[in-house]
Every structure is written in C-alpha cells, then in structure tokens.
Design brief:
Blueprint (H helix, E strand, L loop, with lengths): L4 E5 L3 H6 L3 E10 L4 E6 L5 H9 L3 E9 L2 E8 H24 L4 E7 L1 H17 L3 E6 L5 E2 L5 H8 L3 E9 L13 E2 L3 E4 L7 H4 L6
Parallel strand pairs: 3-6, 6-7, 7-9, 9-11
Antiparallel strand pairs: 1-2, 2-3, 4-5, 5-8, 8-10
Helix pairs in contact: 2-3, 3-4
Length: about 210
C-alpha cells in the first residue's frame, strides 16, 4: 500500500486568519522488479483541497524557460501551482537520490484528480531540471497549464516533449476533467473515456456519483 507524505501549507494572510491550511500528499519509491522510480500524487481530500481546485483559478506566472531558442513563459492554475511549489525541492531531492542509486531506472509519475495536476507539473519539473522524460499516467485529469493566444502552439509543442509516454485519462462525464473551464488551459494528451462517449449534463453536475 502507498503511504503518502503530507505537507501542509498556507498561501495568504486571509487563509491564516480563517484557519485554512492546504495539504499536498505525495509518495516516491523504487520498484526493483520493474526497475522503475515511481511518484504518486493523491486526489482531492477535504474542503481545503476544493478551495485549491475551485477557489484559486487565477493564473500564476510559474517559470520562464527557453524552448527552441526562444523564451517561453509558463503559466499555471494558481491553486495547483502553489501546491506543487510547496514540495518541489523535496521531490527533486528524493528523485535524484533514487536516480543516483538506480541510474538505469525509468521514471513513472501517477496522479488522480487534483493529483493529476501535481503529476503533470512534476513531469515538467523533472524534465526541465534533469532532462528525464517520464512515463505519465493520470485519471480524472485536470488542465494545469495555461497558454495565451501568442504562444498556444508553442506551449502545446513544448508539453508534448516532456514525456516518453503519456496517458491522461478523462471520463467525459467527469466535470473535474474540464477544470479550469476557461479557454487556454491545457492537458497533455487527453484520452476520453465513458460509456458510448456521450456527455450528459446531469452526470457532469454530479461528480461524486459519476
């Protein structure tokens, strides 16, 4: 069984005043039988995670990188961006330690729902800092990265270079997989699932059941 590490944090003075504390849960281990370093990011758990999901839609300037010889400004959903920034140094440290012990191991990154946003951001982070192209698998996937009209094509092209293999499974009647519901937010290689691949409004509006 996976035992997650829980890291608690608070973003703003208002949240501290109201006693709202966010929590991000992750796990990393090495599997000898498959020679794989695997990272896992947990789903939405509790009220504070829903604040991060829904109440923090604002776009955050995340990182400025160079891609194909030109600058590319990465923008992300603020709630998930702040969440991953809280743990990124420890994730890098733990991954690098396992990588040094097992230099031939592949890297797998898994996430579910809110955890899918963390998994995708982690995939970009490890690729940018260590050049690793991970195998990325998520379910109930959200859309953490944000493009603008002037860089939409380059953003999609850049995100497609991050993974060796990528499957982001999204049930078409899971409203979470359309979050944030605004133009420009991106998911890498969305794979639609669902009975008959037909959307139904009442299912979209009832995520706990569908």
């Amino acid at each position: 069984p996976i035992e997650y590490t829980a890291v608690r944090y608070t973003n703003t003075a208002l949240e501290r005043l109201l006693g709202i504390r966010h929590e991000v849960n992750y796990e990393i281990h090495y599997e000898e039988d498959r020679n794989v370093i695997q990272l896992n990011f947990q789903r939405t758990v509790g009220f504070s995670d829903w604040i991060a999901n829904v109440g923090e839609f604002a776009v955050k300037y995340y990182d400025s990188i160079e891609f194909e010889g030109q600058p590319l400004q990465l923008r992300v959903h603020r709630g998930w961006g702040d969440m991953y920034l809280t743990i990124k140094r420890e994730v890098r440290k733990q991954w690098l330690l396992l990588h040094e012990q097992h230099p031939g191991a592949e890297t797998e990154i898994l996430g579910w729902s809110l955890g899918s946003g963390q998994a995708i951001l982690c995939c970009q982070d490890l690729n940018y800092n260590f050049g690793v192209r991970s195998h990325l698998y998520t379910f109930g996937s959200v859309r953490p990265f944000k493009s603008i009209r002037s860089n939409a094509d380059r953003m999609k092209k850049y995100l497609d270079t991050l993974c060796k293999e990528c499957w982001n499974f999204a049930d078409i009647n899971d409203i979470v997989t359309y979050m944030p519901p605004f133009r420009g937010f991106l998911m890498i290689n969305r794979v639609d699932l669902g009975t008959g691949l037909r959307r139904a409004l009442f299912r979209l509006l009832c995520p706990p059941r569908f």
